[in-house]
Design brief:
10-stranded antiparallel sheet, 4-stranded mixed sheet, 21 strands
Length: 363
Amino acid sequence: MQVWLTSATGAKSLRVVGVDYTIVVANDFTYATVTPQPAFAALASGKNIELRRVLPFSQDVDLIFNQRFNAAVVEKALDRAAMRDQQLDGRMDAYEGNIAGFQDAVVSAVTAANTATDQATNASNSADAAASSASVASASATAAANSYDSFDDRYLGAKSSNPTLDNDGNALLVGALYWNTTSNVLRIWTGSAWTNVGGTSAGAVSFSPTGNIAATDVQSALAELDSEKADFQSGTWTPAFTYSTSASGITYATQAGYYVRIGKLCFIKGRITTSAKGTVAGSLQITGLPFTSANDANTDAGVLPASLGALFTSIGGGLIVMVATNDTKCWVRCGTTTGVTDVTDANTNAGTTIYFEGVYRIA
């Protein structure tokens, strides 16, 4: 007797007597009792147990020629033969079940192999794509590195003093920049020198001057241009008399002055009339010019025609007003038969009047 286990797929397997089951045969051999062991007792869904008779394939009955047959012996022999036929039929069923299971296993294996092949193909394609991506990434990394190196050659970063080489130890490129942490300005390499770019003030922006400009930074250039531009102003001023030696107690009936400034030239016009001569001595002067005159060497800053208004004494010729250099006063002079001389306190009186106008250079 054998016990076979049939799986859900139809595959059959022989179980081990004494391990998976026990078998007890009746004394008269008419039946047998099979008892599954605990490890084999619980069958999963779809499984079943098959009991098979196992007889030896041998001839156990010998018939003697010319002897009487024993019907019971012959019947027993025929029964055993029938049982062996049944045994063979059961084995064929088992083989067919195993073959079916084997075929299913082969199909599963082929399917798994095909799946593995597809997966390998996909993996190969993925590997190729990954390699291509890696190549592109490598090229991008190289381009990024080159771009950074190019940038690094042009912006050198923050430094406390002017560098003489770039960050790679190579010669500086024209237009290279760096931030000077000492003066807190951006500097640019012109090819021969470092100059400031921008800054917190116009004085921090330096350049190489050309033409008539002498300044080397924006603030100085603006001041230079400001001093050279044609400054236009107009207004009034108050002319007054004074004398070279002393003057006190002078009073006036009229003090009127007007001016127009255009750049370095000042056009003036004025009138003075005294009401009291005062106590005076020396040469007559007019003070109060609106701007200090130019410091022109060996010449006066200006000569202004003047006219006698009234009450001048012993004036031999016409009056002129000569602007002193680097000053805000004029000398009043008159013509004589031998030349020009100063007008003095001897020539003025209470009520003396003078008119004058002209132009002089200012500082």
